[in-house]
Design a protein that fits this description.
The protein has 435 residues and is α/β, with parallel strands linked by helices. Among the domains are: 1-20 and 61-81; 177-434, Alpha-Beta Complex (2-enoyl-CoA Hydratase, Chain A, domain 1), CATH 3.90.226.10. The chain is 53% helix and 14% strand. The protein has helices at 2-24, 48-176, 209-225, 243-255, 271-277, 304-329, 333-343, 353-358, and strands spanning 189-190, 193-196, 200-202, 231-238, 240-242, 260-269, 281-284, 289-292, 349-352, 364-365, 368-371, 401-403, 409-413, 423-425, 432-434. Strands 3, 4, 6, 7, 8, 9 and 10 form a 7-stranded mixed sheet that branches. It has a 3-stranded mixed sheet with strand order 1-2-11, with no helix packed on it. Strand 1 (189-190) and strand 2 form a beta hairpin. Helix 1 packs antiparallel against helix 2, helix 3 runs parallel beside helix 4 and helix 4 (243-255) packs parallel to helix 5. The longest helix has 129 residues, at 48-176. It is rod-shaped and about 175 Å long. The two termini are 100 Å apart.
Length: 435
């Protein structure tokens, strides 16, 4: 329809151009009524150049109209020729748009399916991860329980083996030392000599829960034998240790029907010094060293709240254990702490035995101690010696020294059992390390 309209327009223009050409030709004037010379107006005079220019202009106008008509006709013919191609192009465009719409719909459906599959896969992965984590935690719990059971079993076996060895050695001691009977004296200090019977318990090395348990058991054992004669808690060398374990030893000593006397031969510090000072009676050599200082803790992995709680409980522990010492010295706890740092800038107040007696840290200083039992055949006096049955026998009360990756020697302390416990120990060289 559009092409037909163009063609009709072109024909109309061409017709108009032809008509214009015909109108420009000189026309024959129609017959007119004769007029008189007087009635005829005077015709204006037109210059020949102007008439020639008007003719030329009219020719150009006619030519332009003709050209426009031809162009319109050509455009109509071209549009008529392009009409099928435009229709085909429109058809192809429509088909393309339809295919694109179908592809987009299919792609949207595929994307939705993919997203659904991804969500399902992520959910399954999360569930699988949760199941794996649960199983891993269960395996770890079972492994921990297994290790705990193995440790408890090893400790039980070690204790049983230790009991067997102890009974065997006691039997040997009774057979070999039948002629050298221990001397049991209610007043063991005779002419400046301290006489120690076989009612003795060695308390050497760090004070731990295992050592406290062993000392408590031996105190009960000797009390069941007799409550008449004293029991001797002999310290060769102890840097102190767990506050809770030391307090357990103190209470076991206080609960004993038989008197419990502490004997320090070489060195007692921190918790061991507290046990010595607060004992019912204590003895030492003139050159024995007793060392008191404030309680300390070595927490390294805890938040501020836990650190504050630990410090608070350690302070309470210290006040409850150190106040009786200050009272025995006849001073306040504050004055006791001041004198610690007055005598040593680190607060490690140490004194030889004779000076310790003046300070009331120890009750008696002796020049000679007589052991009337056969010590080399007596059972081991430290529970720590049977903590690891596979290791060779260790000296009473000592822990095994180990060398770390840097070549430094250290002793690994057992973990503290009480959540608010702390190690009150003298360790200037940093050789004791808590697990």
């Amino acid at each position: 329809m559009k092409n037909q309209n163009l063609r009709a327009l072109a024909l109309s223009l061409l017709t108009s151009a032809t008509l214009l050409g015909q109108q420009s030709a000189p026309a024959v004037a129609p017959a007119a009524a004769p007029v008189t010379e007087a009635a005829r107006p005077a015709a204006p005079e037109v210059a020949p150049e102007l008439r020639a220019l008007q003719k030329e202009t009219e020719k150009l106008r006619i030519e332009a109209a003709r050209v426009q008509a031809e162009l319109a006709l050509a455009e109509a013919k071209r549009a008529e020729a392009l009409a099928p191609m435009n229709a085909e192009t429109a058809k192809l465009s429509a088909e393309k748009a339809l295919r694109a719409a179908r592809v987009a719909a299919e792609a949207a459906a595929a994307e939705e399916e993919r997203a659904k599959l991804e969500r399902t896969a992520a959910l399954e992965a999360a569930r699988a991860s949760a199941r794996l984590t649960e199983r891993t935690n269960r395996i770890r719990d079972l492994e921990a329980e297994s290790k705990q059971l193995q440790l408890e079993s090893a400790n039980s076996v070690g204790r049983i083996q230790g009991d067997i060895v102890r009974y065997q050695k006691e039997e040997e001691a009774r057979k070999i030392a039948s002629k050298a009977q221990p001397r049991y004296l209610k007043e063991p200090l005779v002419d400046g000599t301290l006489v120690i019977s076989d009612r003795r318990i060695a308390m050497n090395g760090p004070v731990t829960d295992q050592l406290a348990e062993f000392v408590s058991e031996r105190l009960s054992f000797f009390n069941n034998q007799s409550s008449e004669f004293p029991i001797f808690l002999v310290i060769d060398n102890s840097p102190g240790g767990s506050i809770a374990a030391g307090y357990q030893i103190q209470k076991a000593m206080a609960s004993s029907k038989a008197p419990v006397y502490v004997v320090v031969k070489s060195f007692a510090a921190s918790m061991a010094a507290v046990i010595t000072t607060l004992a019912e009676r204590s003895y030492c050599y003139p050159n024995t060293i007793i060392l008191h200082h404030q309680a300390s803790t070595t927490l390294s992995r805890a938040n501020m709240t836990v650190l504050k709680e630990q410090l608070g409980f350690t302070q309470i522990w210290y006040e409850r254990l150190a106040t009786p010492i200050a009272k025995k010295m006849g001073i306040s706890l504050e004055e006791f702490v001041k004198q610690m740092y007055k005598n040593d800038s680190n607060g490690d107040w140490q004194a030889f035995g004779d000076r310790a007696k003046e300070l009331k840290w120890v009750d008696n200083v002796v020049e000679r101690i007589e052991e009337t039992s056969v010590l080399d055949l007596l059972p081991e006096k430290s529970a720590q010696a049977v903590l690891v049955p596979a290791r060779p026998a260790t000296p009473p009360g000592s822990l095994v020294e180990t060398v770390d990756a840097q070549g430094r020697t250290f002793v690994e302390l057992p973990p503290l059992q009480n959540p608010f416990d702390a190690y009150w120990i003298y360790d200037p060289r940093g050789i004791y390390r808590a697990r």
